[in-house]
Amino acid sequence: MHRPRVLIITANPVIALAYAERLEKAFSVEVVGSEGAALSAISREQPAAIVLDLVLPEVSAPELLETIRASLRVKAVPVFTLPCIHGALEQAVQQSGGVTVMERGTDPILRVEQALRGALDLAPLAGSTLSFREPPAETAALLNSLRAGLHTVSHDAGNEHAWRALAVQAHHVTDAIALGGPSAASQVAAAFEALAADLAAMPDQANPSVLCTMSQAADFLGVLLEPTRLLREAEAGRVLIVDDEPSALQLVSAAVQFVGLVPVQAATPSAALAAASGSHFDVIFLDVGLPEMSGFELCSQLRATSAHDRTPIVFLTGMVTFNNRARSSLSGGNDFVGKPFHLLELGLKALIWAHKGKLQSA
């Protein structure tokens, strides 16, 4: 039986293996990891379909797709993208036509296979259903590479090449974890990747606070990937944000919403205490300099309530001094984010503590 030839273009070894093993039952699969290898494969034999990773180490996906289109003898070869978090890249490749963007979700390989079967007039899978599975064991090796990349940029924050490499490593980790479907780990990995990609474009925005949060996220991903800790996504967590500056409230709220959490704003300590008395929050962001009382005093009062005696509390301050760190711990705080804020760091920090809180209460 003739099997249609599918060319998969990805530099991610875990993704390459997972997709090839699944698809080779119905397709003749070839996996390549670079522009040169892709063009060489196409020159040998034109594929019936192409599956393209939108984040590649040495070439942009839109440019590669344009080059591939020029080399194809039959221009109508369908192209499917691997699911990713980069909407701008997805829009860019869609403009070339003939591209199907695969959405993120449960069982991405099955989704791709169903799309390929439909495009190539093959019988649909009988009785197939979307299902959860654990991320591949090889994901741990990708996470170790991510940690090594983070160590490099931590010692040379101005190294643009190192930041680009870290962004690719983060993408590889996110995609590997996404094979297991929606989970706390996939949420944290995607937020980490978005921050890494932003810093790869603007390394000057990296600061000690951002690097600390990224290090926390990498370590926490290792915890979340333990089989007994694999948390599935539940209802969106709620975050109380306390700051007397309207612009700061809006910024932190936008960051929280970006990662799928629900923000609740309070401009004064009294408003915060009123909100906390009637609702449960998964994370609380506190500005240090508040009217009525300091953020440290408010933290102590929140800790005295049964509803928030263990809720993760993160301080927002431009004065990350030893004295403030000590006062944070003494008042019951868990962490700091330094001003000026990086929006994507705030979202990542919120996710880390929201899921840590759920693990601790489980």
Describe this structure in words.
The protein has 362 residues and is α/β, with parallel strands linked by helices. It has three domains: 5-119, Rossmann fold (3-Layer(aba) Sandwich), CATH 3.40.50.2300; 139-229, Four Helix Bundle (Hemerythrin (Met), subunit A); 238-361, Response regulator (Rossmann fold, 3-Layer(aba) Sandwich). 51% of the residues lie in helices and 12% in strands. It has 14 helices and ten strands. It has helices at residues 13-23, 35-44, 61-71, 87-94, 108-119, 139-155, 160-178, 184-201, 208-224, 246-258, 269-278, 295-303, 322-331, 343-361, and strands at 5-9, 28-32, 49-52, 79-81, 99-101, 238-242, 262-266, 283-287, 313-317, 335-338. The strands form two sheets. It has a five-stranded parallel beta sheet, with helices on both faces. Helix 12 links the parallel strand 8 and strand 9 (313-317). The protein is elongated and about 75 Å long.
Quickly name the level 1 CATH class of the largest domain.
Answer: Alpha Beta
Task: List unreliable stretches of 5+ residues.
Answer: none
As a whole number of angstroms, the C-alpha radius of gyration is: 23 Å
Number of separate structural domains: 3
Largest β sheet strand count, sense and barrel closure: 5 strands, parallel
The overall strand count is 10
Which range best describes the helical content: under 10%, 10-25%, 25-40%, 40-55%, 55-70% or over 70%?
Answer: 40-55%
Q: What is the count of DSSP helices, taking H or I runs of 4+ residues?
A: 14
Helix-strand string: EHEHEHEHEHHHHHEHEHEHEHEH
Q: Which fold does the CATH topology of the largest domain refer to? A: Rossmann fold
User: Biggest sheet: strands side by side, in what order?
Assistant: 2-1-3-4-5
Gap from first CA to last CA: 51 Å
Tell me, what's the shape? elongated
CATH architecture of the largest domain: 3-Layer(aba) Sandwich
Structural class computed from helices and strand pairing: alpha/beta
